[in-house]
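Notes from hallway chat w/ T.B., transcribed later so I don't forget. T.B. wanted the structure written out for a chain they're using in a teaching module, and asked if we could keep both sequence and structure tokens in one place. Agreed to drop them here.
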Amino acid sequence: MNKFVLICIFVTLVSARPAEKKWEAKLHKIHDECQLTAPTRSPEEVTLTLDIARVKALSLCINVKSGIQNEQGDIDRAALGSLLGQDPQAEEIVKQCGDRKGDTPPDAAYRLFQCLVDYMSVSQPK
């Protein structure tokens, strides 16, 4: 998965909530920082295959740097709530996505990311 696709996913997730517009720049910066290390670096060229181990490692890196998870993969529910801002559904999202799922820190980070994406996509107006 290339850098552009990952940035688009995270920006879409964050920009889906008006209160989070300020997070766009922060997520771009965090993503770029996470791209500096070999385990989370994605090739610049577009690939059709998805290296799930890199996506999981990148998810953990971004989540840790944004403060919503620690290095052990535990979710900081308060930080997650802060990320969601004043959204009236923030409490429900934290309730649905705020409990750790996954045996390893990268698995837990990826599962959190999936939950947020799933929740945000179903809660968007059609």
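Follow-up for T.B.: Helices lie at 3-15, 23-34, 52-66, 77-84, 90-97, 105-123. Might be a good example for the class.
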